[in-house]
Design goal:
The complex is a heterotetramer, with 2 copies of chain A (363 residues) and 2 copies of chain B (404 residues). Chain A is of the alpha+beta class and 363 residues long. Chain A is built from 11 helices and 10 strands. In chain A, the strands form 2 sheets. In chain A, strands 1, 2, 3, 4, 5, 6, 7 and 8 form an 8-stranded mixed β-sheet that branches. Chain B is of the alpha+beta class and 404 residues long. Chain B folds into 3 domains: 87 residues, no CATH class; 111 residues, Butyryl-CoA Dehydrogenase, subunit A, domain 2; 114 residues, Up-down Bundle (Butyryl-CoA Dehydrogenase, subunit A, domain 3). In chain B, strands 1-4-5-8 form a 4-stranded mixed β-sheet, covered by helices on one side. In chain B, strands 2-3-7-6 form a 4-stranded antiparallel β-sheet, with no helix packed on it. The radius of gyration of chain B is 22 Å and the shape is globular. Chain B starts with 6 loop residues before the first helix and ends in a 20-residue tail after the last helix. The interface between B and C is large, with 49 and 47 residues.
Chain lengths: 363, 404, 363, 404
């Protein structure tokens, strides 16, 4: 039994934490919040430099050939730093679409640029509404909505429905003819969104031959696990911020942190975070080993981490009192991020449902 | 037990309703909020105009004394008007602080000449009041006031220096009630004094506070050598604490009890077909009904007491806690219903999404403003359940000697 | 608007409270808990004497011709006193079956005895499993389980299925041939249960001509409202007991009730109780006026009161610490009663479901 | 990261499993509880017999020193044995206090002659120990001990008078660790002393405590003029508090961490077909999985630390709170599933109903025993999060002068 990260992985995490502390103080997060750029460039550069983007990519595709565990601990640090980067969309989702649905040639063409951070891509998951149509001439017609990092990504992957009823994974280049993008306001402006209109847009069909639904499943599992690491990091940070505040702030002659109601509130957050932590770590193990437990473990991580981050953000803000309700406090960054991450892959009902389906299937 | 009006109240309600029908458009849906998309100055101008019209028709100051232009009516009539007004698309809430908190304090405690000077203009709505109580270091611990008022021995005036926060309508107010520390050598609660402040005098700077949501409904107010005549003291010098306590009661009641009756209809509407098909959504609808209908019933209970000339029961203090919880759940519910599209800002979606997201932030304010959930729980524990107060380590110590 | 009980009703409640305080101290409750008798006879006698059992029965049937509001406030006091009596089964349920399903002759025959407490009856609601069969010769065959007060009641009302597929309300006399009863252990021994086996048991069919399902609905609404009053009274008592204990008990040199965690715990109970109170009172209004809101109001009262009593019993016990976990403390009386009352008419999911059905129907 | 044993651990596990297969029947279902329907004396006899057999095979005292008959193994081997033993229908838990709390205290602090006299007999299981710490007025505030130990100057013995509660196995214990107040003129924590007590000496009366559930798993113990030789003091006279603190740590860890791995399978089994058809039930199954699997994963994390010779992380203190919540939810869930038949006592229904109802009461004990939820939260707040301690108003004051 070794339910822990290795010393090397912990050291890697420590390096990423230090790099993000330098490259992405909150002032950088707030620049993105105020609309200055699609992400915090120094944070993204730091991740690329630390090898995070290349971590779990095979060496033949320009990666480091490490495991998803390295990527996971880095995602936890991204969440902790609140760093606005395209790590989740480009490395968490798009890269996995290419690996699972792309032909060897497509993988060879696209993976190195993604792994090296030279280009970014995103995925329109299309969990709601109708899929775009794929015409025989290789063009697509339709709309994609709420695509994360959709305005800045150089390519968007999505599923489209061909005339024969088959669903295919496709890639559209951002500035190509017939692909019109517009910014959509996000509840968390540090996680920007876009709407994409496809009008006879030339697309490239991913030709690896994998079943589109199976690919989606795999991408969702990886996405859920990596996002859960971000949520875990964010929740730990929200707790840490609240702890600092209640130690600093005084009321009625005492530190606010000396009041039992406040102590117990923070302990309830801590308990939720530690409960989430073990599920999140477990999901990384399941993802890395492609264990039969993966569907349950990924769903468990997503639900527990969404709940922990929601509680930490909401009650951490409450612990700040009136100051927590100001723009100047960082509390709303967590309040927004917690909600955004809890929704982007489908809500907590959807994932409880997946969890129980998995449990029943393996009962 | 019944929910109908007594004959005289029914008559009054008919009268009110007729006037409202003649003077304002009905809301198209219960959650419609007037003036959401108007610039602030337009909203304020419209609110002033609406108050003036109500005043002229005898509805602007229903339960205030006739002497100052009020209608000399019962509190219950005032409640009837509010209930009916809530069905119309008109500017409300702008005068909550003015007429709900400041003027009642003046009426109770100010000198006759102040009442003569101020009350009618406030009731008409031409002069708006704000409350300069909270400070950065005096939130839950409201008596921790650092703003100083020092007497200029020659002129007999007070000179005021300090900073106030969370002031509603400070930009639009003509007058304010302000609390300042007049004697720091007394214990915390004993050296405070309440003043009437002319918001137009030199030395007052108003700056909007940007909230978590990005909006700015409140202000901070900086006071630098603001000169106030000694005649503007309300009550006694160094006797301000009891005035503050009285006004807090007004404030908490008004924050907790202001939800429309059929809010659960909105929950249902938001859920759409899933209120029929999804058992998990149905459970959340039921939980929200229990809170929203419960709040309405609690206010009906309080109103019953008011209609009998009694004070509402102590249980009405719970309403603020329930309201905060309800609004937060309501917001999460509305956002969850969108699934992965719930990450879109409301304006990318529709009116309902905007409402949920407004509540998503608004509920934070309800849980903090006018006493945090934790402070309200303390109050209920001590005043209603009679549990022992916190051990107070700052008791009897001169304010200036307290650790900060 | 007058959302309150009248002064007369409040005075009636006060009389009932005093009478039960005299007749039913906890020692009487514990006698029933330990199996000494089916109910607390002094408590039942007091209720009869106060006119509670006759309160909302028409004068022509030997009642007082008051409203169900008087019965309701008395039920709240029964819950407060934890009094083991057949009020809920005999007056709450059985009397209503007779009124709704009985012919005029049956009503005249049975109501006076029930109203005067001279006899008691109960209802097997049959919310689960199969209904007994009703043969053409007027005998019934089948099993009734978890019948409250089923061993002591002189008559049991139940629904039975005739050969033509019609459901009829029937009455079986307790000691008649073919009706075999046995005690069933209850999670709350102060609310005893029985199983009833019908083997060619002679039964009397209720001949008022009302639809059996409509009668059941009406009986369930009345039962839910009156039980909610009992729950409300019980919850208030559990809170009061906890309050007394934490004021009395000291730890670390302070009254336990001075600790903020304990204060807030009791406030959370108080808030739940007061929220339940308005729903419970509202349901009484709806019942009394037979308002269209009755299905929603009764369900709301049941859910809110079940939740409040559950919280009050569970966390009230926790507030007592180790002493709360002993047989000698009264906490377990509430812990048992809260669960029993939350389940006997169907669980909280069932009633949330009814609540929302009602809301949707009136939307 | 992996959940397999290291080679040496795998080997040990194989060895353990083979021995268990040869010596005990496997459970037929994960929640099977051994001996539920046996009379207490039979259960105790069987537990003694089972400990003796384990001891003889080298599994009775795996991580205890060879000197006293222990196997001198690693804590991790002990954990492996416990995991495997949990799959068999055998009496467990009877020696938890003896071997989990009392003997480790003796080994750490007692004099050599006490260790020689007591440890082997305890490890073999022939002599059982109990803990006489809690008192009616010393629960959460464990240092509020009223039991007095007064020195008989002539004999050099101590004379002990007082009352203890919540004592597990007091009827079957040969020996006890007892804490008594030896100096009431010192502050609360400073005048306490821990003694070894022979449970057979005159003046000791054991009476079962009837619990909320009607069962009696604990006892109260009355001590009247019980004479103890001064040689039986553990550690220093008046230095008992640190021994108590050390033993509490053992106790809390053992109460929190004892759930089987696949408890969510039971939740699923209870739900039956409704785990497929009822979305509300499915949500509750998911919530219970998160707690029960989370507890298992937390213990896996703690075991990982133990296997590396480290102490478990501070997060493991949370386990007790989660366990209490899980068991209470689990019980309510099982009872809710029965609907209106849930009012029947489990024995009228089936094994699953009995399990839910056992947990319905058992969860109460988990939330109170060995530190209430509230005390555990204080501990986490202060020791893990570093928040300020409660203002202690009893600090430095002689115990005899404290208000009670």
């Amino acid at each position: 039994m070794d339910f822990d990260f290795s010393d090397e992985q912990k050291m890697f995490r420590e390096e990423v934490r230090k790099a993000l502390a330098r490259a992405c103080p909150v002032v950088e997060v707030r620049k993105v919040l105020e609309g200055q750029g699609p992400w915090a460039a120094p944070a993204w550069d730091a991740l690329v430099e630390q090898g995070v983007t290349a971590a779990d990519v095979a060496e033949e595709h320009g990666g480091l050939g490490l495991s998803v565990l390295e990527l996971a601990v880095a995602a936890e640090e991204v969440g902790y730093a609140l760093a606005p980067t395209p790590l989740f969309t480009s490395i968490g989702l798009a890269l996995e679409v290419v690996r699972r649905a792309g032909s060897p040639a497509q993988q060879a063409a696209w993976l190195p640029a993604l792994a090296q951070g030279a280009a970014t891509a995103t995925v329109a998951l299309g969990l709601h509404g109708v899929l775009p149509c794929l015409a025989a001439n290789g063009t697509a017609e339709g709309e994609l909505t709420a695509v994360p990092d959709g305005l800045s990504a150089e390519a968007v992957f999505f599923r489209a429905l061909a005339a024969d009823g088959q669903v295919h994974w496709c890639r559209v280049t951002a500035n190509s003819a017939g692909c019109e993008r517009r910014a959509q306001d996000s509840i968390d402006p540090t996680r920007p969104l876009a709407g994409v209109k496809l009008r006879q847009a030339s697309v490239e069909v991913l030709a690896g031959g994998a079943d589109a639904a199976t690919v989606l499943q795999g991408v969702l599992h990886r996405g859920a696990v990596l996002l859960a690491f971000e949520q875990l990091g964010g929740a730990a940070r929200a707790l840490e911020d609240a702890r600092k505040y209640v130690l600093d702030r005084r009321a009625f002659g005492k530190q606010v942190g000396a009041y039992q109601a406040m102590k117990h509130k923070l302990v309830d957050i801590y308990t939720a975070v530690e409960l989430a932590r073990v599920h999140v770590y477990y999901s990384a193990w399941a993802l890395q080993t492609n264990a039969p437990e993966l569907p349950v473990a990924a769903a468990g991580a997503r639900v527990a981490a969404s709940q922990a981050y929601t509680l930490a953000a909401q009650e951490g803000l409450q612990a700040h009192g009136g100051f927590g309700f100001t723009w100047a406090a960082d509390c709303h960054l967590h309040y927004r991020r917690a909600r955004w991450t809890a929704l982007i892959l489908g809500n907590v009902h959807d994932w409880r449902e997946k969890l129980v389906s998995g449990l029943v299937a393996t009962a | 037990m019944h929910f109908e009006d007594q004959p005289q109240d029914a008559e009054y309600r008919t009268h009110v309703r007729a006037w409202l029908e003649a003077n304002a458009p009905r809301k198209t849906r219960p959650d419609e909020t007037w003036g959401l998309h108007l610039p602030e100055d337009d909203r304020v101008a419209a609110a002033r105009e609406w108050q003036r019209r109500k005043f002229d028709a005898g509805f602007g100051a229903i339960a205030f004394p006739r002497k100052y232009g009020g209608a000399g009516g019962r509190a219950y009539e005032s409640a009837i008007f509010q209930q009916e007004e809530a069905n119309f698309s008109v500017p409300v809430a702008f005068y909550n602080i003015s007429l709900g908190v400041c003027i009642p304090s003046l009426l109770a405690l100010a000198r006759p000449e102040h009442k003569e000077r101020h009350v009618r203009a406030a009731l008409e709505g031409t002069e708006v009041w704000c409350q300069l109580y909270s400070e950065p270091a005096a939130g839950s611990d409201l008596a921790g006031i650092l703003t100083r008022a020092e007497r200029d021995a020659d002129a007999g005036d007070f000179i005021i220096n300090g900073q106030k926060v969370w002031t509603t309508h400070a930009r639009h107010a003509s007058w304010a009630l302000l609390v300042a520390r007049t004697d720091a050598s007394k214990p915390k609660h004993e050296g405070l004094t309440v003043f009437i402040i002319d918001m137009k005098v030199p030395g007052i700077t108003v700056r909007p506070i940007r909230q978590a949501s990005g909006e700015a409904d409140f202000n901070e107010v900086f006071l630098t050598d603001v000169r106030v005549p000694a005649a503007n003291v309300i009550g006694e010098v160094d006797g301000g604490w009891k005035i503050i306590v009285a006004s807090l009661v007004h404030e908490r009641v008004s924050i907790g009890g202001a939800l429309p009756r059929d809010l659960h209809r909105m929950t249902l509407e938001m859920a759409g077909d899933r209120a029929n098909t999804d058992a998990r959504i149905r459970e959340r609808v039921a939980d929200q009904y229990l809170m929203s209908q419960g709040l309405w019933l609690m206010s009906a209970r309080a109103l019953t007491a008011v209609s009998k000339g009694q004070a509402p029961g102590p249980e009405s203090i719970c309403a603020k806690i329930i309201a905060g919880r309800f609004l937060q759940d309501f917001a999460y519910f509305g956002m969850d219903l969108r699934g992965s599209e719930g990450v879109l800002a409301g304006r990318e979606l529709d009116e309902a999404a905007m409402t949920s997201q407004r509540m998503w932030f608004g509920s934070l304010a309800v849980r903090i403003a006018g006493g945090t959930d934790e402070i309200v729980r303390n109050t209920i524990a001590e005043r209603v359940l009679g549990l022992p107060p916190e051990v107070r380590i700052d008791k009897g110590i001169p304010f200036k000697d307290l650790a900060r």
